[in-house]
Amino acid sequence: MCQPGEIAICIPDSKQKPVVTYNHLGSHARAAVADCIEDTFRLQLWHDLNGYETLHCPLLKAVRAWCQNNGISIDYEDTVKMRFQRMRNAYLKSGIDLRRSSRDHSK
Q1: DSSP classification of residue 55
Q2: CA torsion sign, 2 to 3 to 5 to 6?
Q3: Do 80 and 72 form a contact (C-beta atoms < 8 A)?
């Protein structure tokens, strides 16, 4: 059972180790699950929001829509926006510029 401040996860069932009996995750396993969730979140955030400039909308509106589509409260939209900006800045600091290289001058 999950405690306050924790998220319940589903453990896959197996004939060799039924979930009813084998349902304990040790501290290392919990850390591994948390790392996987964090990595999945970052990958999905980057995949969905990278290139938002081509939509000609502000980043905060794109983040708000992303949060709503992924079931995240919009109370955290600023936090998600800052995480995305930190990821983008980390790539820029490493010399990887993934922003659009040309501007649309027709507008």
Answers
A1: G
A2: negative
A3: yes
